[in-house]
Amino acid sequence: MALGLSPRHLQIVRCIFDGLDEAAIGRELDISCCTVHAYMDRLHKKLRVHSRCDLIVRVFLAYLSVQAEEGAASPGVAEETSLIHAPIPA
Predict the structure, then answer these.
(1) Between 78 and 56, where is the model more confident?
(2) Are the beta carbons of 17 and 25 closer than 8 angstroms?
(3) How far is CA 14 from CA 30, 37, 80, 83, in A?
(4) Rounded distance, CA 83 to CA 6, Å?
(5) Mean pLDDT of 8-37
(6) For the chain, what is the mean pLDDT?
(7) Mean pLDDT of 36-61
(8) Is 25 exposed, middle or buried (0-12, 13-18, 19+ CB in 10 A)?
(9) What structural domains does the chain harbor?
(10) Is residue 79's pLDDT more than 90?
(11) Measured between alpha carbons, how far apart are the two ends of the chain, in Å?
(12) The pTM is what?
C-alpha cells in the first residue's frame, strides 16, 4: 500500500475497518489496550488524521488510488475517485 504502513499497522487498520474498538483490537491481536492505543496514536500521526473516520477515509482513498494506478480497479472506480476529490459546488 502506498501509505508505507507496517504489517502490524495494517492489522490494526483491518480491525478498525471491522469496527472493533481498542479493547477488541487488543483481544484480537493479543496485545494490551495500551499498546493498541500507542499504535493508534502513531497511525494518526503517520497518516496526518485526527479521527478514526479520517483514518478509514485516508486508507480507503489510498487503496482506490493504488488500484486505479495498477489498472486492477473495476470499471468506474477511477471516475468515482476523481469525483471524491472534486470540489463541492457552492
Answers:
(1) 56
(2) no
(3) 15, 15, 23, 25
(4) 29
(5) 95
(6) 81
(7) 93
(8) buried
(9) 7-85 (1.10.10.10)
(10) no
(11) 34
(12) 0.69
Q: Which residue has the cell 483491518?
A: 14
- Residue 3 three-state SS: coil
Positive or negative: CA dihedral 8, 14, 16, 19: negative
Alpha-carbon 37 to chain mean position: 16
Residue 54 identity (one-letter amino acid): D
What is the sign of the dihedral through the CA atoms of 63, 68, 73 and 76? positive
Euclidean distance between CA atoms 23 and 33, whole angstroms: 6
User: Rounded to an integer, what distance in angstroms lies between the CA atom of residue 72 and that of residue 74?
Assistant: 6
Cell of 61: 482513498
Q: Are 12 and 40 in contact, with CB atoms under 8 Å apart?
A: yes
